[in-house]
Amino acid sequence: MARHYGMDWLRIGAFACLILYHVGMVFVPWGFHVKEHPTVDWMTIPMLAVSPWRLTLLFVVSGYASRALLRRWRGPATFAWRRSVRLLVPLAFAVVVVVPPQPWVELVTQHGYPRGFGHFWLHDFFRFGHVAGIGLPAWNHLWFVGYLWTYTVALALLAALPRPPQLQRWFDRLFGGIGAVLLPLGWLLATQVIVFRRWTDSQDVINDGVAHLAYFPAFLFGFALARSDRVMTAIVRWHRSAGIAALAAWGVAVARELVWPGGATPPSHFVDLLVWSRQVHCWGAIVALIGFAEIHLNRDHPWRATLTEAVFPFYIIHQTAIVLAFYLLMPFALSTELEFLALVTATVAACWLFYLGGREIPWARPLIGLRPRLPRSREPAIASVPTL
User: Fold this and answer.
1) pLDDT digits (tens, 9 = 90+) for 303-329
2) I need a surface site. Which of 56, 289, 338, 381 has the fewest CB within 10 A?
3) What are the extents of the domains in the chain?
4) What is the C-alpha to C-alpha distance for residues 188 and 207, in angstroms, rounded to an integer?
5) Using one digit for the tens of pLDDT, what is the confidence trace for 320-373?
6) How many CA within 13 A on the CB side of residue 286?
7) Cβ contact 152:83 at 8 Å
8) Which residues contact 360 (CB under 8 A, 6 or more apart)?
9) What are the two backbone dihedrals, phi and then psi, of residue 265, each rounded to the nearest 5 degrees?
């Protein structure tokens, strides 16, 4: 398999959007670990532009990368073991060390928790219970890694089963035309709207079955897409139309914010329209972005390898950096504009420090999601396939 630089750039861009999205969560009226008061209602409009598709796209890209990894390691067992190490070691480290400041700040700022962080970490974080309604211990934003590991194990089990040799050909035929747009969209509408009605995720890998019905097929779609020039060609052909449909669906969400601001409840028929349009927005944007990446971004750049490697460490640390930066900025009572810029600057700086510092310490590399550093003579000539 040739490396698809466009998918690398798409992954990098998606995680950059995720950082900005989580900074935005501080300011909008939606629930988050820290909150600006008063909230900035208009910021929900750009947030709604990325909310429906950001996570599903990451699962598609992760499935795409998994195809190359499975091929490289030549066996489902080796694939499952190596991916488990790459995902579970940093997940465990982050849950124990990186995540705890988030619920502590949330308890202090929103629930009047009187104890310092040391007492909280030693006595409350690992209690396997609730403090002020917050379940502890928590994995917070790292739920994505847990879901991805679950799908990785499921993929390894599927790859170990006997399967028809023409399976890839069936995928090419089904999705090699307008089916690349309509079939996944039909699946999302059926599972997320018609049979069930899902607005968000529970972030509980055991009890989030409806979300798995969206994310795991997206992961498998990316896996199959990695070996299908025919389906990629279809995506390129239809990506503009899909993008227009996504923009129209976003317009429905914007109309809801403008006509019923401040949390007002729209009529039931408009709520139904919102649920349907959210899925159109989701898959339409994903097709548009993959098509754009195939046409315009499938080329290398000196920064690509570094940014590709940095994505997982950035993801691990970014939300804790946002929460702590906001907590430290609270006494200064900055304007909304200055606070937003300060949060973005502090978060990006913390991400780079976490990555650049951790990658130079051999024992820390696996903890932040990086491969152990090989002797120079054994390093591969081609940069590693993305971790997530």
Assistant:
1) 999 999 999 999 999 999 999 999 999
2) 381
3) 5-99+139-174+200-228+297-378
4) 19
5) 999 999 999 999 999 999 999 999 999 999 999 999 999 999 999 999 999 987
6) 28
7) yes
8) none
9) -90, 120
